[in-house]
Specification:
Blueprint (H helix, E strand, L loop, with lengths): L8 H34 L9 H9 L1 H11 L4 H36 L4 H7 L2 H9 L3
Helix pairs in contact: 1-4, 2-3, 3-4
Length: 137
């Protein structure tokens, strides 16, 4: 915001808020898609004596697994355990993707927006420049 003239502070603030909200919404959408895809592909329902409708429902969400488990009774422990594992693995994958994207963005920003010495000197106050000449800060 310090780079925006005072007369345009409202516009700068609005743009800042919009980009933050858009980034948050897109981040949730991308990471949610990763979790969903990873959960569906990682859920192993082989050997659990489930009907086709139950398999399709279980692949949709962990909440559907909980509903199926209530209907199955005590024999549902294996189904719940597999769904828990698939969801945890999917969430871990999304966290690793988020960490990789964050690290990539940090490197990009560090390389791209490194201030030059001339720019840093322009931004220094006269007191800082004088202190640098005399060895004081």
């Amino acid at each position: 915001m310090s780079a925006v003239p005072s007369a345009k502070a409202g516009v700068g603030s609005a743009v800042n808020d919009t980009t933050r909200e858009l980034g948050g919404a897109l981040g949730i959408a991308v990471l949610g898609s990763i979790v969903n895809t990873s959960y569906r592909s990682g859920l192993d329902l082989n050997g659990l004596d489930l009907g086709a409708d139950e398999v399709n429902a279980a692949k949709q969400s962990v909440g559907a697994v909980a509903q199926i488990a209530r209907r199955l009774g005590p024999s549902a422990d294996e189904l719940v355990a597999r769904a828990d594992l698939a969801f945890t693995d999917a969430f871990n994958i999304a966290c690793w993707v988020a960490a990789a994207l964050t690290a990539t963005a940090a490197v990009f920003v560090a390389i791209t927006y490194r201030p030059s010495r001339e720019h840093a000197a322009e931004q220094s106050t006269p007191d800082q420049v004088e202190g640098d000449r005399t060895g004081q800060r």
